[in-house]
Amino acid sequence: MTNTIQILSIEKTGKESSLQKEHNNKSIKIIDGYFFSRNLDDQKFTKISKLISNDVSQTILTKKNVNKVLSSYCNFNWVVEIKFLPGVTDNIATTVKEIIKDNLKSSFKSFELGSTKIILIKGRKEDITKISKNEANPLIQTIKIYPFKQYLNNFKKNQFKIEKVKLPKKKYIKKEINLDISDYNLSLIGKLGIEENDKSRRGTLGLDLESLKTIRNYFSTIKRKPTDVEIETLAQTWSEHCKHKIFSAKIDDIQEGIFKKYIKGATEKIIQLRKDNFCVSLFTDNAGGIEFNKDWIICHKVETHNTPSALDPFGGAITGIVGVNRDCLGFGKGAKPIANTYAYYLADPNKKYQLYRQKNKDPMLPANFIAKGIISGVRVGGNCSGIPTPQGNVYFDDRFAGKPLVFCGTVGIIPKKIKGKLSHKKKANPGDIILMAGGRVGKDGIHGATFSSEELDPNSPVSAVQIGDPITQKKMSDVIIRELRDENLYSSITDNGAGGLSSSIGEMAKESGGFIVNLEKVPLKYNGLYPWEIWVSESQERMTLAVPPANVKKVIKRFNARGVEATIIGKFIKKQKAIVKYNKTEILNLDMEFLHEGYPKLNLKTSFPKIKKEKKKIIKKSSLIDKLHKLLSSPNIVSKEFIATQYDHEVQATSIIKPLQGEGRVFGSATAIKPIFDDEKSIALSQAAYPQYAETNPYDMAGCSIDTAYKNLIVSGANSKKIAILDNFCWCSSDEPDRLYQLKEAAKACYDYAVAYQTPFISGKDSMFNDFKGFDKTGKSVKISIPPTLLISSIGVVDKISHLTKITPDDGDILLVLGNTRNELQDSVYSKIIGYEKSKNPVVNSKDALHTYRNFEKANKLGIINSAIGIDLGGIGIAVTKMAIASKKGLTIDLKLKNKISVDQFLFSETPSRILVSMKKNKLANFKKIFKGSDYTIIGKCTGSDVVEFKDNKKIIRSKISDFAKSYKQNIKGL
Amino acid sequence: MNVLVLSGYGINCENETLHAFEVVGFEGKIVHINDLIQNPKQLNNYQVFAIPGGFSYGDDTGSGNAMAKKILTNLYDQLIDFSLKDKLIIGICNGCQILINLGLVPSLNKKDPEVAMIENKSGSYECRWVDVKVNNNKSPWLKNISILNLPVAHQEGQFMIPINLLKSIKANNLIGLQYINNHKKLAKGQFPFNPNGSKDDIAALTNQNGNVLAMMPHPERAFYHYHVPNWQNNTSKKFGDGYKIFMNAKKFFA
To answer: A815-831 pLDDT, tens per residue?
Structure first.
């Protein structure tokens, strides 16, 4: 331990304010630490300390000053020291190394360095235990708690340990696997992984018995045994995550499967029906692309990162967002990411679910830890990458306690043509060099693709967690988008996500024929990885490029000049063969056809599920105003401003309709960016999902998602002919016939409504097993399945700035509800919070909806509409109060209803396809002309006072806008 | 009139910053820090040096520190030289943090950083619009401006200034911008008007000549009228308040 040293710097004030607030303890202090694998003489110690700290705001702790400095705050009694586990990406350490190397140059030889976070506290032992649980994740960090005095002594004696990645000494580079074994043993390989020499298992492959038998047959035909690398590769390539086997399977009498029939089928039908096809790239690439204007294409992709976020919420979410950014970088020749979107489906952060993956041990992380981690992961990923994150939402339901859903999306932009060639077309040519650019490869994320396709159970591998490094990716992204792409220096590009190199190269090689990879060339974070690990590792921030040999030197030089590593690791070939070598030993040799299409196709059957009826809840007697307050402050309606303000939505200077709208800052359901400075066109974004409607009727649930995602863009001012949508199915127990029935129904609705609205699907993704199997606190086994969730994301083009709408009415405006209101309170927020009424579930009538939308679009273009807001959760009542809160202007609502529904049904029903609008009185005549024959109701006016009032025959009830605003802006408990 | 806009290692506002300069009449170029280190002489071709916002080195070891150390190691003399000429330097957000860490502002003792940027008092990242008033009217960047409505977006925007230094900063009139409340009075630390708890509501500092400006708010994100929140209520103007800062740079050389 003599050849080590650490530098600790303490912030004089600040840094711990959020921690202090959270734990209600003023006596908390944070220290930044850096430890070195070598000793430093005094001169170097001082020099390095100066490089990595700021002596105005920080003090470097030394043996001499440590007592004095620390006692100046208070008498601390506990210390928690948090370090990354060996092998986990340590971004801070990388930066510090770079600063030191740059400044000290040759005078400082190679060294290992790690960062650590030290928290000091004056309090009880329980407090420090709680803090350590909140601040660190044992999956990726070591957490040590010391009595303060002991820690101080250790520091003075310079006693601390540096842990390194302990890897077995390399024993083999390939391993032949015998598959001529019993079905039972075969299925063990699928479930637990390949057996190592010491009888341990590598971790799940997610291959079922039939797949393993198919592999066995293939190898018996070619008369040899498979290698471990081959089985690992097939497991990755055939995973549900990569091949979407359920969506492509024959299901009941649908031969072609639901993807081809309902999703792709809808888009094909729409293209056939419409003369003005604006789709550019559909389903085949990393993202879907549509035309933005005559020179530019925009693309959009939404991914989920559910299982990793359950295990490591911060890491899971940050890799989710930077991962989907790479999908844009990998769209066509490389699109520049211009907006991020998010949607989180979470358990109640204020509840303690106490779930365990194994009986009485291996607990699930607390719901609030998961929620906070996810929110910050996307914050750091988006903000650090310089990509605005304007659009998103959060939804809470107990059924997400076993698995949170984390949807991360990115919009990208790319010129239509690059050097005269269509930018969305790419083709790796035989002879092209395979270049890996960006981060290095480590053990992170091994088996990510195979395990995200499985349920979360005790055998879920912990090494499946990666940590994103947005700065490495930003550096790489800048080189690609700004320097390489526009000179046409590469022929194809794709990202390394699930399945790592095995997937990215395997996919790209389809363009040329096949590939040969020399795996020993791949740069590693540390030595000792098995070849199979290098091949499937999901280490982040890497792109794979196909580069013509003549350009390779130039490309590598460009990357290196920007501090980015790029390495030749093989070449693409014409022959339909997938070949991997390690130091000349062939470790994989498969036919491309078998690799990609050899998997056994599923044959699925569905059955009608038992409908789980909403529990009857007695209606709480309360006044209308009271009900409004209750709904406004409920977690699924309350403002998400605290997320909007921590996500930079202004970077790139494109934000034109912001997430917080009106002077009263209402969290909007659609936002817009204007991506090109000299074109007034903008991109409107929205999204919708209704997991709460799913069990009652999955068809209507899907209809509502499409309708709302589409409607929100119409309301924002988008051109109805330029709206495209994306589908993200997050399902549960997709091996059960009744869940498959719900899936089929939802997919059918996707077809019906997309075709009705003529809005094509351009991209999508599915995640089929979002179930938790484990134990409750009493040791009883439990299974928690998420409700089937279909997130529809919408992207549309707004032709003119003047078409963009606002949600704030002006004094004297009259208020109207467009569309018919029915008694559809079932599964509504009202029925959950206030109580059950005999009612129906929300159903979309696409014909009526289209009337409303087309007329709205016309009226808006003519300047008739002054303000508009889509009516969604909480119905008209919530839409009205949101308008008032946003504009800080009073409204009067007339409740003398003509049709036969009660006041509560009118105000809180969640009937889809409705819009609340305001307009100047003198526009009403023109409005009526346009809306002749379609449904609308005049419901009141904008008074400009400070109250919202509801009038019926008998009385007037009112509440101050500021009181509504207070309810709407309440903190979400537990966050 | 030429502007050099710095890029690299996680700086991310270079495109919109360059655009703002170009619209007011500059010619400009985005230059990667490594290219500038390779060929520092190219600085002679420029009249304005702009360090845009971003997350250089992911804020590791403190916002702006790592990039400041890179400049300190490789470009410091050239930049000092630039600042002593009749030229302009601006650092916006992360650029401000970098200038502060370099000690180019307030630069009263010409050695070592004198001011530090620390975490917002709220403990969280703050992306929101604020009003600031111009305090130092003699800086070419801020001439003839009284109040600006601009967005901030930062995690570490709190200026930390030792008391004695603050006295001389005030005595030398080096506070560039200060956060104000909805009554156009100093925010007095009140959130959200002062988004980070900065002492004396400081949002920007200058050097003694006023030609170097380090500001936390983003003028390039308030450049056009449609950048401003709720712009639909006021569509008469073409530009937002941020435009004025860039115009001032143009006027300085005109």
So the answer is: 999 999 999 999 999 99
